[in-house]
Structure formats: C-alpha cells, structure tokens
Amino acid sequence: MLRKKRRSSVDKGDGPATAATTTKAKKSRSNGSTKTKEQIHEETNQSVFGLFLRKAGVTMKGGHAPNEIAVDQVVFQKRIQKQLQKSPRFPGIVQEFISGLESFIEDEDRFRNCLLPCVPQLSEAESSSVSTFQESLLRLLLGIEMLQTPIIHTLLEKLPEFMFDGVKDGVLGIPRIIINQLKWLDRVVDTKELASKLMELVSVAPLEVQRDIITSLPEILEDAQHNDIARELNSLLKENTQLTVPILDALSSLNLSSSLLTEVRGAVMATMAAVQLEDLHVVVKFVLHSVTTSDANEVVGNLRKTLELEQCVIPLVLQASQSRVKSQRDTGSASVVDSSQDSIVLILDCIKSAVRFQKTISEAWLKAIEAVGEVEDHQVIDLLVLFILHSTNANQSRRGAEKVLKAKVRTGLIQEVLLQKTFKNYSQVMRGYFASILALAQSFLRSADSCVLHFGGLMYRFSFVGFDSYCHQEVVASLVTHVCSGVSGEVDMALELLCGLANDKPADMTMYAVFIKGILDYMDNLTPQQIRRLFHLLSKLAFGPKLQGSHIQDDIHIVIRKQLSSTVPKYKRIGIIGAVMIVGSMGASRHEVKESEKRSLSQETLRQVTGLLELVKSSSESSPEAAALYYDELANLILNSTLDPKVQKMISESVLDDFQEEFVVDLGPEIPGSFPLPARVMYNLDEDESQGGIAINLLPLLAKDFLNKAEKQDQSKKAPRRISPLCLSPFFRLLRLCQEREHQGDLEEIDALLGCPLILTDMDVVEKIESLSKHEREFLCTLLFYTINWFREVINAFCRQKEAELKMKVMTRLQNITYLQMLLESALAGTPGFIPPVSNFDGEITDSVVLTSVVSGKGAKKDGASKKRKAPGKNSSENSSQPEEATEAEETQQEQPEKEKEVRSGASLTSYRQFFRELDMEVLSVLQCGSLSCTVLDSELHTNLRQEVLLGPAELVLLLEDMLRKLEFSLTAAPAKRAPFLKGRTDKNVGFSHLLQRSAKDIASFCVQLMPALCSHLENCHNYFQTLLSENNGVVDGPATDLQEHQLMSSSYLLLVQVLNNTLSWFGFSQPAQRSLLKKALGVLAGRLKDGGAELTLEQLVKDSFQYLLNFRSTIPSLSTALCLSQLLSTVSEKGGSSASYREQTASLARHFLSQNWVTAGGERERGQKFNEALHTLLSIYLEHVDDVLKAVEEIAGKGVPELINVSKDESSASWPTLNRQTFLVFYKVLMAELEKAIRKIPIGKMSDNTETQSEKLLTWNLAVRDFHILVNLVKVFDSRPVLNACLKYGRLFLESFLKLGMPLLDYSFKRHKEDVQSLLKTFQLSTRQLHHMCGHSKIHQHTTLTNHVPALKKSLELFVYRVKAMLTLNNCGEAFWIGNLKNRNLKGEEILSQRSQGSEDDDDDDEDQEQQCPTLPREQSGDEGSESDNEGTKKGTDVNPDQWAEDSD
Questions:
Q1: Which of 80, 519, 1050, 1336 lies at 20 to 30 Å from 64 by C-alpha?
Q2: Does residue 290 sit in helix, strand or coil?
Q3: Is the sign of the CA dihedral 608, 609, 610, 615 positive or negative?
Q4: Chain CA centroid to CA 334, Å
C-alpha cells in the first residue's frame, strides 16, 4: 500500500517529502487529534485534493482572498480528470479527493471561496492565455463527470447548514450560491436523483430557499425530467399558494406535454382566488402564454370570469392599514392603493403582451366579452381589455374592440355605472391607455346612435376629471374639433360637454379658453341654438365670478360688435344671440359670493351691461326680424337665468309701457283709417267691456307695415324704425316673463290681454277669396298668421293660471286657433306662392324667406315653408315652390288633377308649422282639463250665463300633434347626418327653441305626469268607437256617422297611441337612474286596470300595462293606429319580464289586425302609400313574433294567395282580408325577406350531430325550400316588374344562405337520410330553374333594375351546381353527377331564340328528357337519387356567360 502510494507519487513527479507528508496526514486523521486552522490548512495543501489542484493550476487561498487559477478552465478540468484516471488508486482516489474537498470546505470562509469565482493568476508570459472571467472552483469540479455526483451530494448535504442564515449586508446567502453552481451544467450525470434530492430539500427548506430552488429547476434539470418535476410542482402549488410565483416561473420554462399543460393550467386557475394581488400578474402571464389555438376561447373565458379586479383593491387597503398602522398612520392606505394600481398595471401589461403577439388570444378576448349577455355580468376587466385591444397596433384588433364596445353600449349591456367605476377606481391604470380612450371617444361622438354618442361624451368627461393637465388639453382640443365639424349631433354633444366642464371645473377650463375661442371662426356651421351655447360657454369663462378668463373678454366684444354691425341677417343674428348671452353672464346674480358682497353689481359692470343692451337695441331697430329676435332672446334670458335685481329692473321698467304704446289701442265706436280689408273688432271674450276696453291694433299695424314695405322697395335709403306686427308675439312674451319674474308668477296686471279683442276683418271674406286681388289675399293670409300666433303666445302665457275664468278663456283661445286654422287652409289654397311672416327668428328660415320672397312664382300652396332653399338664385317652379315637408305629408305620386283638386279644397298646414309660434310644454297641461261648467263661472259675480267650454276633438288633435312633434324631437334619437355637399342645410331645430332649453329627463317626467290624462282621452276614443260600432251594427261607415268628427276622433286615437309609444320608448328608461320614473309611468297604465300599482314589481307592472293596452284592440279605427298599438305593446313588453309570453300575444294581435277589413268612415277601403307602409311593418311584426315562421309563410303563400287568385280583381283573400292585388307586392316582399331571415337562424350542420338532430334540421330545410318554391312559382301569376325584382333579390340571398348553411348539413346527412336529401334537392331545383328563366326574361325586356341582380344570381346558381357535385363526391357518389346545357327560357317556358342561335347543334338536340338520363349508378345508390343528381347537373347553362349578363346590364 505504501509502495503504491509512493509509486504513484513518483509517477506524478513528486519527491519523498510529499509521500511522507501524506502518510503523516493519514495518521493524524486516524488518530482524530484536534488541530488548529493553520495545521489543517498546511495538511490540506499536502493532501490529494490540494496536491491535484495545485498541479492542475489552482492555488488555494485562505481568509477572504479568492482562489487563483493559472490556466484555462478547460485545461484545469482535463488535468484533474487525467490525474484521477492515471492514479494507481483509481477509482478509490476519487473518494479520497472528495474527502479532501469535504475537509477543506468545513471552514465557512474557504467554502465561500470555493463557491465564488476564481481570479486569474497572471504572469507576463501567460497574460493572454487566461480568460479574465473564471468560474468558481466547485463549478469547475462539477464539470468533471466522475466528480459531479459526489460533489452534488456534498453540496446538498452542506446546504441545510446555511438555510436560515438569510442575506447579510447585501451579500448573497450561501444557499443561493450553492444552487447557482448547479445551473447550466454541460451535462448532468444523474438528473433523476438530482431532481429527487432538490424536491426533498424544497419540502424542508424555508420559503426563500424554496423559491430559489424552484425557480432554478428549469436551469438545472434536463428536458427528460420536465414532465415529472412539473407534476410535483403542480401538487406543491395546490398545497402552498405562497410558492405560486416561483412555481409558475419554473413551469413557464419547462417543456411540458399538452395534456399536462392543460392539467397544470387548470390547477393554477383554481388557486387564482387565493393569490396575492402583487403576484397575480405572474399567474395571468403563465395562463396566457400556455394557451393554444384550440383552447384559447375556453381558457380566456374562464380567466375573464376568475379575474375580478373589483375585489382586489379594497381588501388590500384594509389589510395594509391594519399591518402598517403603527409605522404609516397617514400614508399607509394611500401607498397601498398605489401598489394595487401598480399590480393591476402589471396584469394588464401581461394581457397586452399576449394579445399583441398572439392573434388567437385577442380574438378569444373579444369573443369572451361579446358572449356576455347580462348587464350585471360585465366587469371592469372587460373595459380595460377593450382599451388594451384598441391600443395595439393591429388594425383588426383595434376595429374589433371598437365594434364590440359600440355594440355593447348600443344594446345597453355596458353602461355609465361601469365606466364611472373604472375611471374612479383605476385612474392610474386608465391613464396609460388615454390615447385609446381619446380615439374611441372621438369615434363614438361621430356615431348616429344616441346611446353611443352619450357614452363617448362620458369618456371625454371622465378623462378630463380624472387625468392630468396634458389630458385636459387633449380633451378640450378634441372637443373643439368636434364643434367645428358641422355635424349636428356631434356639435351638440361637444358643446354640452364643454359647458358641463366649465360649470364643474371652471378653473381648469379657463386655462384653455383660448382654444375654445377659436370656434368663433367656424360659426357659419353652427345652428342658433349651438351659437347660444357657445356664447354661454365663452361668457361664463370670460366673465365668471373670479374673472380668470378675462384675457378673452376683448376678443369676444370685438366679435359681437362686428356681427351686430353686419347688414347680413345671419351675422346680425349671431351678434344678437351672443350679446344677450354675455349680458346674462355679466349681469348674473352672484350666489357664490358672500352676503356682504352680494348686494348688487358694480356701477362699471352695470354701465357695460346697459351699453351692450343699448347697442343691440339700436342695431336691430331697422329690422323687425332682428328686433323680434332680440325680444325672444331677452325673454329666454329672463326665463332661464337669475339676473341681478338692477339688471332685471332695467329690462322690465320700460317693457309694459312700450307694449301698450305700440300694440294696444282703446276701443271706440269707429276704427279710423283706410285699410285693404274692412276693419272689425273680433274675438272679444270680455263682452261687458266692449265699450271703453282695449284691443290689439293688429290690422292697422299690418296695413301700415305693408305700405312701408312698398315704400322701402321704392327708396334706397335706410328705413327708420317702424312698429311691425312681426314683433307683437315676441314683445308680449318678453312682457309676460318680466311680469312673472317681478310678481312671482302672477299675471294680474296683464290678464286683460287674454280676453281682449283684436282689430281684424270680417272672416266671411275667406269664402270670397277668389274675388280678392293678390295683394288682398296675401294681406288676409298674413293677418291670419299673426292672429293665430298671438293666440298661441297668449295661451303660453296664461295656461298655468289657476283661476277658472282664465282657464275657460284659454280653452276658448284654443277653439279660436282651430277655427282660424281652418280658415287659413282655405285662404292659403286660394293664395298660391304666398310666403308667411316669420315667427321663429333664431332659425335659418329667416334668410330663406327673404330670399324666396323676391322670386316666388305663382305655384300652388307649396312655396313659403321651406326651411332652407336649395338655390336662392333660381326661380321656383310651380311644383317646387311648396315646402319640403309637404311632399312628406302627402303622397307624391298623385296625378296633377288630383293635386289641383286638393289645393282648391284646402291646403295642409303641415308645411307651415315653422311659421307658427312655439307652444311651451306647459300648454300641454290643458290636456288635464275637462269641461268647465257655467256654475263655477257664475260664482265669480258674473250675472250673465256663459256657455260651457270643454276640450273638443279639434283642440285635442292640435295639442296632441304638438306634443308628438316635441317628443319625436327630444326623446326619439335622431341620427346625426352630415349635410350633403352643395346643398342647403335644413335647420331641424326651428320651432323647438324653448324645448331645447329643457333636458330629455325633464320632458319625460312631464309626459309621465300627463299620462293619466292621456289614458282618459284614450278611453274616451275607445268608448266613442265602441258606441259607433254598436249603433251601426258592427260597421264604422254607418249612415249616421259624422265624417268630420270620425276623422278627428280617429286622428286623436292614433296620436294618443303614438304619444304613449314615444314616451315609453325613451332610451333613458334603460338607465338604472330612471327606473323609478319608468315604474311610475307603467304604474299609471297598470292602475287603470287594477289598483295597488305602487307595491307591484316591474314585471307585474309590465304585465298589467300590457293587458290594459291590449283591451283597446277591438275599437282600432285604422291600420296605422293598429300598427302603433302593436309597436306600443312591443315597447311595453321589452321593459321587463319574460319576452316569450308576450311574443305569442303580439303575434296574435298582429294576425287579428291583418285579418280585418280596413275601411274609412266613407265606406271606402283603405289604400295608398301610407297604408302599404303600415301593412309592411305590421306583417313583419307578425312574422317576427310568430312561433313557426316557415309555417306562417306557407299559410299565407299556400292558402291566402291562391284564394286571391280565384277571386275578382277588386276582392281580397278570404283568410287574409288585407291581401288583395294592390297589396300583394307588400306581402310578397315581407314573406321573401322573413323567409330568408328565418333560414339564417337554422344552425349549420355538423359532423358530430346525431341522427335525430340531423332529421330535425333536414325537416326545417325541407319546409323552407318548399315555401321558397311556392313563392318563386307565384311569379308566373304576378309577373309585374316589382315582384320580379323582389324575387331575384331575395332568391339570390336565399340561395347563398342555403349554400353556406344547408349544404354542410347535406354533406353529413346524405348517407343516413338519402330520400330526404333527394326530395329537398329536387324541390329546390324547380325553384332554381324558375330563377334561371327569370334571368332570361330580364335579358329580353332589358329592365335595368332586374338585370342588375342577374350576374350575382347566375354565379350563385353555378356555385350550387358544383357544391352538389362536391357533396356527391364526398359521399362516394361522384359518378352519378354530370353537367348538361340548360336552355334559356322566358317566364312562360318558351325558349329564347336569340340564345338558341348561339348554341351548338348538340345543344339544339338536347331536351329535357335527354337531360334526365344518367349513367349506371353505384350499387348502394338508387336510380331516383341518380336522376335527382342529374337534374342538379342540368342546372348549368354553358351557352350563357355571366360576364355577358354583366355587360348587358350596364
């Protein structure tokens, strides 16, 4: 033994001294004597371990000095391995080497030195041969395979000694350094054992060491161990959620099988609820990065449900406030909120990274959000992910996110509450996606949908309130851009947002007043109402309480003075509106200031206000239109603002005296003066004051005004100020509002104006209008317009007074208006080309009337009411001089004699609505009044009897028409459209100036208050027609029927139903904030049926309201009313409850109406364009709500139409009385459209469908194809061009849907259901042949409307042929298919000769019998199936080129 050692030592080149040293070391170790560190160090250097290291080139150092290496690392490893292998004691020498290592590393400092990198021992000769970076000694030894396993054992056994040491003074702990030695080894000799030992360590190690080991596993183990270690980690994850982050980090780097990955992902998502918020982003990252294309939708859907960010913030705040209450009493919760926001930012960054680089994940997120069907199921994460998707650079993702968000907002699934919560709780997170939020808001504000428009406005508002000054600037700049766009809806919303922000954040908005001032350069595109809002905004910023925006005051004054001095009415109008709004801001009563400073305005401000008002008054004196606008604007200011008492007094003090001086005269025995028509005092309600009373001096003023106009045309000099009757109504409105403000609503000082007479002319002259001159006719029409407008303004003033006598007079004035309107219709019919005087002065109509009045021709009643003329320089023809709305109100396709007859009988005032003064909403409260009996009137010390006054049918129609127009304007969402290029823009706001001052919510609330009265009137109409039917034995056209009264009651019925429908259709009812108002409205309807509506649930209210309205079906007088009632019932049913139960009742009601004969009071059958439109909609409602659409279509087309064919020309179908030859086209279009819509809802066939499912789908398709065949064959009887057009259009759509949805079903069903498939295709082929014949018919007759459909239809027909061939090939029956040439024929089946001459001789010999022949079929296929397939083959006509059709159709 000694000899061997000595020999090996000699072999190694060592002397006797070395051997002796080794022997001494062994003896000393066996003796077990205690030695000092110096002795150990000395002996180790003489041991095998130290000897081999020194010879290999490593010098061991003591203390904290690093070990030195003098050779390259690879050379060192080779030398050690060579020494060990060549040693005579091999392999025992290896254990000696390891023992020497163990002894050496017993000292902690030397152990650390061995774990830390060596330093190169450089000499001048070797300076270039040794790398500057060297591995640690143990790392170098681990690279030697024969030493690796024992050294790993030594290290892992050594590791527990240092487990609890932790990190000292920023120096890495020894456990982490030990683990680092095992990473990235070139080869691991025993991976399985290493993995086992590491997991054993994990089970006993403290948390920090566990994390270090787990995160290092992918860098230590080889791929073969990944699946095994992943299973163990998965089990560990379920036991200890504290290790979630390191385990997921490790799993992310492991190469796992798909099944194991799915299992691990499921376990991870199951523990997500227990994961800390700061670790959640690691979980999300792992889940999303482990997604595959096949399971992306499922995984993302589950992740979305699990990731509830709303529950992550508050618990964290509470936890932190408890844990840090001692150290951070003031800042603890705030810092935790910031940390939670940071954690959510990390989560969203993980999602953003995933969707950016994996298209399937972005699509899966969109589908997951799109699949949510309830408002409560939407979460904050949905909005955040949509913003993320929009922020990515992918256009498809951006468009998809915008599309989904718009759809959700439009359907009410994502609402304001969710958006507000997102901005409020996650402002720091949202700030990172501001660019996307701004882009979405811009897009939404350009939408035509009111819900989307409102949501875009909320995004702007919350961005301004919640973000920093940079975002403020961007928001304001974007809103200014919207205002300058010229699109009405966009401009209105942008101005509303700017005004709202100016109210809520005046200090922030004042900084950007210069931006807003730039809108003044684009006022040409704004309506008067928008200009009013703009100047309200600017004046609020410039003249606010703290004068923070005073730097733009001079600019605003300059603009106002420039506009006021303009001679163009449009710009003068802008100046007047702007000046009055500035007066409102400068002269406003300051509620914000202290009581001691609130006494009054300063003298300087009062002087400026007075000067501005004087300037406006003087600049408008020469123009009655400008003066009237000034009075109206001043009245609106007093109505909507609280002015300082000094300003209020200054405006009011001269109004009453001026009005009396200009428009009121004392009554005398005679009326002095010479007038075009004889003067007479009319419409006096105070007969006892006929002598010595007062009267409105209307006719003399009008005569003088006509005279002044004639003189002005002769003189070119500037006209002096004149008193015009044009200012009568506006001036009275200003007077009335001043009196109301001064006397707190009491109008006692001016109540004489309600009953005082007017100086007019005898109205019998209307009957003799043909004998009057043109000047006299126009004078009479103008006088009637002024009289009606005066009465309308008087009703506006006194409708809210409580005295019974005043109420009676208001009702009488309503009767006066209805009578005068009848006279006016007759007068207008005899005065073609007449232009009425303007009554609404803030609209575009002012300019158009002035321009048109110069060039108006002698057309029919059509000219004067156009809101905006197309081209003012062109002469108006007889047919184009009528207002635009006239063509909407009446049928445009009548013959000229019918028009002349209608004109002579009386002109419709529908076209002249904008020439009447606007009725206030408060006037509608008259609907609540019943009859006023004379006994009440007699108690007021009046001795003479008064006739009983009640609201008659004509007055009811007048009020309901006005109410309906108001609701359509304010509650019904109108699409925002851009004005057409080179076409005058119509101002839709004319006549609704007062209404625009009120919010939609106020209007809806007011209508709900009126609903009891509306229901009473509706019941009165129902009782009237019920009585009429009982008296006339069930018919409405009995001999005793009063046609005029019947017409008025029928109109009232229709209007009442429309008003109720428009009220309940308001989109605001879908918002949670308006739920109480909705319940109140439905409670009114339900309360008419039974008491106790207040305690009922919304579903019960809907049920009772539905039943109440359903009771009116028996007395509906017209189809239009029937349609409106059906729509009203649908609106009510959508408010709550199960829709299925209401669908059946709605369908039954529609069927009842369609099965009814509709006749007028005169006994004639209803007809015309409006009737057809109503019938179209009602039939669509029936087919949309019926349970089985296909059966309903077959019933109408297979039973009702044959009945029609067999009766005479003027008769109807027996089972469907509304179906006659005039309405057949309506029925045909609806049936084709609904059939095509129904088949698109049939689920597509799948290979996984069982036999029963396939049979059900085949049966449905068989029914659909049979219905289609019936409808297509009807073209042979009803072959008019519109019917052919509908058949070609919907036939192609049906064919395309069949190819897309039906053919996959046939692919998978052919083998199991051969006969059903064969029958279906045979039936369908008959229809496609007929379509082919229709294409030929279109070619012969050269109808462009028909031939436009032919190329696409031909393409679909050819696709169908080849698709059938593919189906047969798929089922191994391809031999049974062949293609022949189909001849071109017309509708009658006759061959088209022009096409025949182009065919080949073989084509000429072909006939139907030859085409039916087929080759021998395979054994498993019957002859019928082959024949059927051949019939499909004959579908293609090779002698017809679709391109040829396209050229011909051009």
A1: 80
A2: coil
A3: positive
A4: 36
Helix, strand or coil, per DSSP, at residue 759: strand
Distance of CA 666 to the CA centre of its chain: 61
Q: Where are the strands (E) in 37-189, listed by range?
A: 58-59, 68-69, 119-120
Question: Rounded distance, CA 1008 to CA 1403, Å?
Answer: 74
Residues 292-305 have pLDDT tens digits of 888 888 888 888 88
Residue range 905-958, pLDDT digits in tens: 557 888 888 899 999 999 999 988 865 544 444 444 444 444 556 788 999 999
Nearest to 1334 by CA among 1350, 1319, 1323: 1350
Torsion sign over Cα 368, 374, 379, 380: positive
Through-space distance between the first and last CA atoms of the chain, rounded to whole angstroms: 112
Q: What share of the chain is helix, strand, coil (3-state, %, to 5)?
A: 70, 0, 30
pLDDT at 1127: 93
Please tell me whether the peptide bond between 1351 and the residue prior to it is cis, using omega within 30 degrees of 0.
Answer: no
Burial code of 448-463, b = ≥16 C-beta within 10 A, e = fewer?
A: ebbbbbbbbbbbbbbb
The sign one gets for the Cα dihedral 420, 422, 427, 430 is negative
**What pLDDT digit, counting tens, does each position of 785-808 carry?**
999 999 999 999 999 888 888 888
Q: Flag whether pLDDT at 152 surpasses 80.
A: yes
Amino acid identity at 1185:
H
| Whole-angstrom distance, CA of residue 926 vs CA of residue 812 | 12
Which two three-digit tokens encode residue 216? Answer: 């290092």
Task: Please tell me whether the overall predicted TM-score, pTM, comes out greater than 0.85 for this model.
Answer: no
- Residue 731's pLDDT band, with cuts at 50, 70 and 90, is very high
Average pLDDT, the chain: 78
Give the closest residue to 841 by CA, choosing from 991, 724, 1049, 954: 991
Neighbours of 719 (CB within 10 A): 14
- The dihedral built from the CA positions of residue 1244, 1250, 1253 and 1256, taken in this order, carries a sign that is positive
Which helix or strand (DSSP H or E) is residue 586 part of?
helix 569-586
d(CA 140, CA 134): 9
Angle between helices 1119-1133 and 1098-1110 (to 10 degrees): 170
- The 8-class DSSP code of residue 1417 comes to P
DSSP per-residue letters across 919-981: PPGGGGGGGG---B-HHHHHTTT--S----B---HHHHHHHHHHHHHHHHHHTSPPPP-PPPT
Triad 193, 196, 197: Cα angle to 5°? 90
Q: Positive or negative CA dihedral for 842, 843, 847, 850?
A: negative
How many Cβ atoms from other residues are within 10 Å of residue 125's Cβ?
A: 7
Residue 10: which residues within 8 A CB-CB, separation 6 or more? Answer: none
CA distance 736 to 753: 10
Contact 1307, 1367 (CB under 8 A): yes
Q: How far is CA 601 from the centre of its chain?
A: 47
How many helices and strands in the chain, by DSSP H and E?
Answer: 68, 7
565 is written with which tokens?
A: 């001095």
Indicate the angle between helix axes 624-640 and 603-619, nearest 10 degrees: 150
378: three-class secondary structure by DSSP: coil
- Give the chain's largest Cα–Cα span: 162
DSSP string for 386-424 = HHHHHHSS-HHHHHHHHHHHHHHHHTTSS-HHHHHHHHH
**Distance from the Cα of residue 494 to its chain's centroid:** 17
Q: Which of 243, 192, 251 is nearest to 221 (CA)?
A: 192
